[in-house]
Each structure stands twice: as C-alpha cells, then as structure tokens.
Amino acid sequence: MSGLLSPVLEEKQTSPVQSTTNISTIGHGRGGSEAGGPVLASSTEHLPEGPLRSARSVRRDSRSASYGSDAVVPKDLSSSKPLTSIAKQQQILEKLPPPGHWKAPHLSEPLGRVQQITFNLLCLTSFGHSSLDSVWAAICLEEDGDESLWVEGTRQLYERLNNMLIVAGLLLASSAVFVTTVPPRAAMVNYTLRGPYICILGSFALLIGGIIVGSASLLVIGKAQPYWSKEVLYANRFHVYCTLIMLSYPFFSTAMGTLLLAFGLLSAVWCAEDRAIQGACVIVLILPVSMGVLFGVSCATASAESRLRKTYGALGGQGAS
C-alpha cells in the first residue's frame, strides 16, 4: 500500500517546484527573445487562480489588456490636463495673429495717442478688455472646431448688456417720475425749475436711447455667427469702429444719463432754501465719488500685465530682431 502511494506523494512534492520553474522560464515571447530574458508580464497567465496571483500582476494584466501587449503604458494617466481658455488664446494668437485693423492704431499715425486711447476705451466699454484679441481668438478657435470661447464670450457680452439695460430701466423710471410730477415740498427740493428740469429731461432722453440701442445689440449678438462677424462686423477699420461704438453706446448713455439726473437733483436741492438738505446732499455726493477715487488709486499704485500681452510682447521682440 505504501508503495502505491509513494509516486503520488512524490508528484505532489515536486509540483510547486515545477510551477515556480514555469514562472521563470515560460514567457519568452517576441520581446523576451529579443531582450534575452524572461518576460514576466506574460508569465502571469500560467499562474493558478488563487493566492499565488498577486495584486500587482492583476494590475499589470489589466493595463496590458487596455493598451495592448506591445504598447507602452504611461506612468501617470492624469498628466494630460485640459487647456484653460487663456492657454487656448495664447496658442491660437501665436499661430494666427490678428490683422492690423483689429489692433490699436500705432503711435506713429496722426493723433496716434488719441486714436489708441479711444480704441482701447471703446474695447473696454464693449467687451471688458482693452483689445480685440479675445474676440479674434474665439473666432479662430471656432473655425478650428472649438466653439467654447465663442460661446463663453457671447454669454458674457449678453450679461453685460442685460445688466446695463436693467440699470437704465430703473433710472428711466426715476427720471420719468421727476418729469411728470410736482414736488411735494418745493421749499426742500424744487426740480421744476428750468435748470434742474432740463437736466432731468436730458437724462430721460439719453436713457431711452441707450435702452433702444442695447436691445438692438442683443438681437444682433444673438444671431451673429463667428464667420459673419469677422467678414462684416470687423471687416476693416471703419467696421470695427462702428461695431465698438454700437456695443459701447449703452454704457456711455447710461453713464451720462446718471450724471445728468444726479446733477439735476443736486441743483434742485441747492436752489431750495433748506440748509440741512443741502448739507446732506454734499455728503451723499462725496460717498460715491470717494469710492471711485479709492478704486483709481488702487489701480494706479499697482500694475499687472496680462499673459496675452506678455505673449505678444515676446512675439513682437522676436519679429523686430
């Protein structure tokens, strides 16, 4: 009986050794024969299911199945991050710089400084940027199949115009009340006098014009396509100025209407005989003016150059050299 069992026991004792021998010898595939050594990644296929198959071999097999047997598995799969909007603008502006009529006039032109300040001011009040680089980059990216910048820029322009229309509507209602009503106490505030009344009427007219132009601009922006905008709205220098004036007119009309309305009410108070109201009016005037002065001082004492402008400066230096 013991003689019958001895071959079986010997086979069981030698089987683990054979399995380990298989691990170190099996797997001389195409890569292993060329390198002159065993390919352990393929040897895991011969391991039995159970504790001998480690977690590392399972991960290696899953990556090999995902990328192919001959592919190189990247070390960090999350290293490729999506580009930000500014990075996209930098790339497209380096590849396709905007034409000359999209840029601010050069200082060497007649009244170059005045033209440059006017152009930058119109761009700032229209799009919130001192140049049209963002608009050109959005159009070029849309032609390449990426419309994210164009959609985002259109949304921001919509929000700017909507906010200005809301403010203009509130001021228009206030000026209409002063135009059509009689002051309850003329001794305190008499806005029916000639000077204050003319200012309030001018504010009413400017606000109506700003609302009309802003509403028309919203209709044009909603239907404008990138290619049509480039070929029509920004075709040459004249078209660029027309577009910028149309988009910035609601801002200027609302600002001028606000100033006229405030000046008319202040003059109405100063034409009255109540000294307490006149003193309070001075305080009310100083508060918003001081906020504007603080903001101007904060911007004047510190400066930051945009990344797009740095890129253009580097490109301009290379072109000049």
Describe this structure in words.
- Keywords: Membrane, Transmembrane, Transmembrane helix.
- This is Transmembrane protein.
- By secondary structure, the chain is mostly helical.
- The protein has 2 domains: 66 residues, no CATH class; 189 residues, no CATH class.
- Helices cover 72% and strands 0% of the residues.
- The protein contains 13 helices and no strands.
- The longest helix has 34 residues.
- The relative contact order is 0.08.
How many strand segments? Answer: 0
Shape: elongated
Taking the sheet with the most strands, its summary is: none
Order of helices and strands: HHHHHHHHHHHHH
Taking all Cα atoms into account, the compactness measure Rg is 37 Å
Oligomer: single chain
